[in-house]
Amino acid sequence: MSYRHIKVPTTGEKVSVRDGKVHVPDQPILGYVEGDGIGPDITKACLRIWDAAVEKAYGGQRRIHWCEVYLGEKAAGLYDNNYCPDETIKALSDLMISIKGPLTTPVGGGFRSLNVALRQDLDLYACVRPVRHYTGVPSPLKNPGKVDVVIFRENTEDVYTGIEFKAGSPENEKLAKFLREELKAKFFEGAGLGVKPISAFGTKRLVRKAIQYAIENGRESVTLVHKGNIMKFTEGAFRNWGYEVAREEFGSVTITEEQLYAEYKGKQPEGKIVIKDRIADIMFQMMLLRPEEFDVLATMNLNGDYLSDAIAAEVGGVGIAPGANIGDHVAVFEATHGTAPKYANQNKVNPGSLLFSGVMMLEYMGWKEAADLITLVYPEVVSDGIVTYDFARQIDGATEVGTSQFADALIERIRGGVDLEAKRKAQQEQLVRERKQREIRRLLQPMEEMLDSGHMPHTVADLMTRSLITCTDDETVESAMHLMSDSNVSSLVVEPDAKGQWGILTRRDIVAKIVRGGKNPATTKVRELATRPVVSVPAETSIREAASMIADSSFSRLTVAQGDKVIGIVTETDIFNAVDKFGWAADAG
Question: Which of 160, 213, 261, 364 is labelled catalytic?
Answer without folding.
Answer: 160
